[in-house]
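Side project, low priority. Logging it here so it doesn't get lost.
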Amino acid sequence: MSLLDKPRSGPDPGAAPEPLRRNRDFLLLWTGAGLSALGLRASVAAYPLLMIFFGNSPAGAGVVGFAALLPQLAVQLPAGALVDRWDRRRLLIACDAAGLLAMAAVTAMLLAGHLWLPLVAAAAFVDGTAGLFYRLAERAAISHVVHPSHLTAALGQNEARGQAAGLLGQPAASGLIQFGRWLPFAFTALTHLLALVTLLLLRRPLQGERVATATTLRTDVAEGLRWVWRQRFMRTAVVLLAGSNLLFQILTLTLALVVKEDGGSPLAIGMIGLVAGVGGVSGALAGSRAAGRAAPRAVLAGALTLWAALMAPVAFGSDPVVLGALLGGMSFAGALMNVVAGVHQIKITPEPLQGRVTSVFALVGSGTASAGALAGGFLLAVFGTYGTALGIAAGMGLLALVALVSPALRLVDADAEPATPEKTDTARSEEI
C-alpha cells in the first residue's frame, strides 16, 4: 500500500478505547494541524509587519490583509461541500503542499532582495485558502480517528491547540522578522513541511465510504444550509453567535483605542492578548469536562451573560492588567463554549454533511467579524470608547436574554440524537 492509498479501518466503537495519549493517528493529526495553525498565524501576523516596516506601504498591508481574509468570505461554503466530497486525507496533504509552496515563494523572493506586492497577496490568498480547507477537513475527520467516548476530550485538546497557536503566532512573527524579513515565512514553510510528514504517516481513514452522486456543488452547499436551518437549536445558536462575533470585533478595536488614549504602547496590547490567550487555553481544557455534563443551551446562555458582564467594565478602565483579566475571562468562556458546541454539532450532524455544516458556522463567524470591523470604526468615531463599550455590553446582554428565554434553545434535546447516515432524510424533513 502506498502512502496515499486509503487506509483500511477506523476505530471500532465496540472495542475498548485506547487512551488519546497512545492513539497514534490522533496524535499525528493533532500535531500536524497544530503545526499548520501555528505557521498560518505567524504568517498572517507577519504580513502587515513586512509591508509597513520593509515595504513602507500601509496600503499594501491592507491589500495583503484583504487577500488573506478573502477566502473566509468567498470560499467557505464551497470548501465545506468539497470537504464532504473529496478524500479528506489527500485534501489535507494538498493543503499543506500548497501552503508550503506559497511560503517558499515568498521566502525566495525576499532572499533575492525583492518585495512584490502581487506575489505576497497571492501567497496570502493561497495559504489562507489552504488553511481554511485544512480546518474544515480536520474538524470533519476527528471522529474517524478517536473512539466515540473520547470525542469530547479530543475536541477540547483541538480547541486548546488552536488557542495556543494564536497565543504563539504573533510573538513568533514579530521576533523572527527582526532577524530577517524572510524568516517568518520560512518558519511557516517549515511548519507545513513537518505537518505534511505527519499526514503521510496516518493509517486510519478520515471519512466513511462515499456514494457517488450527480449533484452539483451548488446543490451540495444548499443541502448543508437547509440542514442547519431545520435544526431549531442550531438555527437560533447561529444567529446568537453571529451577533456575539460582531460585538467582539467591535470590542477588539475599542480595547486598542482605550490603551492608546491612556498613553499605552503596542506592547501593552500584546500583553492583553497574551492574557486572553491563556484564558482561552484554560477554557478549552475546561470544556472537555463541561461538554459531558452541561447542556449546550446552559453553556451558550452562560457565556453570553458572562461576556455582557465583563464587557461593561471596559468603559471604565484603562489599566492593561485589568483589561487583560476581563478579556481573559471572556476568552475562557468562549473557548469552553466552542468545545461544547463542537461536540454537539459533530454528534448530531450526519457524517456526509460534516464539512458543510462546519463551514456554515465558520462563514457566520468570519462574515460578522468583517462587519464588526466596519461598524466598530464608525461607532468609536461617533460615540468614543465609553459609549461604544457600554453599547456593546448592552447588545451582548440582549443576546443573553434571548438565549435564556428562547423556546428554540429548549429543544436542544430533541435535536441531539446521534447522527447516522440513515437519519439524514428524517433530519431533512423535520418541520420548522
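Brief comment: The domain at 219-428 is CATH 1.20.1250.20 (Growth Hormone; Chain: A;).
Revisit when time allows.
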